[in-house]
């Protein structure tokens, strides 16, 4: 059937598992992807969308490094939006509605075209661990499969328990059984475990909606792409719609609270703070008379609709009755009810930054097993785990993205250093260097890094070099060429801007907040440039952002230098912090448990004070 010994076994075929398998295989490792259902590889378990605030940045970072999520999204999206355009570029975040069925099919197609990946449909029920080192897995069919590394990407399947009202049953996702045995094997090996909860809204029949009563929510007029390699333009975008709950909806929902597993104690796991259920919303925000609902199509060839904003675990009749009170939903039919799901996770402070576990060598965790929520957060962890499993086999140093290099670095450092006791979701506010970590410059930050480890293709590097050359030439133009009053003043007057009296550097004109490249395109020196060089919107945006935000960018770079000074001071492995009595008792306890790799990481541990860091610096001879 297949070779019984692989370099890497990836357990789970979700977003983390797909990226992990692809990364390890593309780095030359023989990979076995084990999933309980080959038909659900790359499945979008919840909303049919990729990207969003900070999440879009993560997808572009995955793409820049040589991952697949951006490409898959581009090939299957039905609507594209750049969010937060009214704010500064550090907040701009791409988001796409995807065709759910095509998305999963495209992932499987891409994986099957990587020669180094084998597939096996089965359930892993045990791990082969000897002397705190992983050696393979045992499946429900009784197969013991050996490998050098194992990556666990089990999502919500580890002892998953689904709740709909008073009913609950074992399951990892609607219609799929939960995974048994792995959690018990990990606990036996010495891991600490916990329970988390997430949920999903009902899916409805779009044919039963009255769209005349719903507000249309269209995509961007000029849609972009996620992948830096893709220059195609999305056509025939599918519109989403919006509506709102009301007092009557809330009354029906409240009447069902007595049968809610959220309020009767049935659910013990912590839920996602930033993606609350509709029950949570009307309880926590009692002063609000309505909550926004997004009606999102599941694809071009289905009438199934995802009711974004209406996540619930109330009885199915309550869900149905409440929805029917929303204008436009009077005749709505449910395809399947919303539900809550509890599952096992393993506090991520038990991991190194490579995502290798501290307890068992050569064992890696990625995705919701680490306490995160979201496709994008899972996918980037899978990518990093796949790379580091390959590096571990090759005896290469761990591959680590720093906090100042990417949102991926922020996410993993937060998990490993601070841990989480509720589903972790990425936001731009979690990053200290947002102006440096923009979605538009992910390729400038990370493609060379991806190429250095052999993951980013030569095509990506060529595209990057072209972009760098274009930026250099255009930057030189605006810094060296002047613009005359006759050329620019009519435009300035039209925009309500103060005019110029003498020839002025183009860069000085462009540094004005309300002036963009479009306003200077017809000026002689600029138009001459674009006669020779084709219009490259992506590179033009880079030049403009760098110019307008140069002060902020320089300030953040100075902060990065300070950050790196602490980050470069390493701490001994398994250091005995209890002997340094000058450190606070809480600080000693946290440092001993987490075992930070650097002074910088130590400074970000909750409970470790600045004075504790000063003591450590003195102890380290600094």
Structural description of this entry:
The chain is built from 20 helices and 22 strands. The strands form 5 sheets. Strands 1, 2, 6, 7, 8, 9 and 20 form a 7-stranded mixed β-sheet that branches. A 6-stranded antiparallel β-sheet has the order 14-15-16-17-13-18, with no helix packed on it.
In short:
By secondary structure, the protein is of the alpha+beta class. The chain has 20 helices and 22 strands. Strands 1, 2, 6, 7, 8, 9 and 20 form a seven-stranded mixed β-sheet that branches.
Question: In one word, what is the shape?
Answer: globular
Largest sheet: 7 strands, mixed
**Strand pairing plus helix content: what structural class?**
alpha+beta
Total DSSP helices: 20
Parts with pLDDT < 50 across at least 5 consecutive residues: none
- In round numbers, the mean pLDDT is 94
Helix content: 25-40%
The total count of strands amounts to 22
The assembly state of the depicted protein chains is single chain
Fraction of residues in β-strands: 15-25%
* Global Rg: 26 Å
Distance between the termini: 58 Å
